């Protein structure tokens, strides 16, 4: 499963950061998941709960912020946030848009136990 490999690399990232800051553990992991990132938040948190037991994250709480799609229209210059997967600008109904946010998954914050 796609989410498992994401969690594996997330854990590696957490371990590296904890080591760097000489932390004993990790209390909280906060992620941003774009609705177009292809990552399913429910599956990701399930994978996290499974893998964390054997990692530095074993006491960590996972917080997932779902990032809606943000479109910038090249025609009317409106920036809009939309909840569905679309390329249509809600202001002028044109499709000359580009995606500003909502496509990626990012580690937003780690709370370390030092
Ligand atoms: Zn527009």
TrEMBL record:
The keyword Iron-sulfur does not apply. Zn(2+) binds at residues 73, 76, 89, 92. One of its GO terms (molecular function) is nickel cation binding. Pfam families: HypA. Keywords: Metal-binding, Nickel, Zinc. Belongs to the HypA/HybF family. This is Hydrogenase maturation factor HypA. It comes from Shewanella livingstonensis. The lineage of its organism: Bacteria, Pseudomonadati, Pseudomonadota, Gammaproteobacteria, Alteromonadales.
């Amino acid at each position: 499963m796609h989410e498992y490999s994401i969690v594996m690399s997330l854990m590696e990232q957490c371990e590296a950061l904890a080591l760097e800051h000489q932390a004993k553990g990790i209390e909280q992991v906060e992620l941003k998941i774009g609705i177009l990132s292809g990552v399913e938040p429910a599956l990701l948190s399930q994978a996290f709960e499974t893998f964390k037991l054997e990692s530095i994250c074993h006491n960590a709480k996972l917080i997932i912020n779902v990032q809606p799609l943000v479109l910038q229209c090249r025609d009317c210059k409106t920036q809009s946030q939309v909840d569905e997967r679309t390329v249509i600008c809600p202001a002028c109904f044109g499709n000359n848009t580009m995606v500003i946010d909502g496509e990626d998954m990012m580690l937003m914050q780690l709370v370390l136990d030092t």
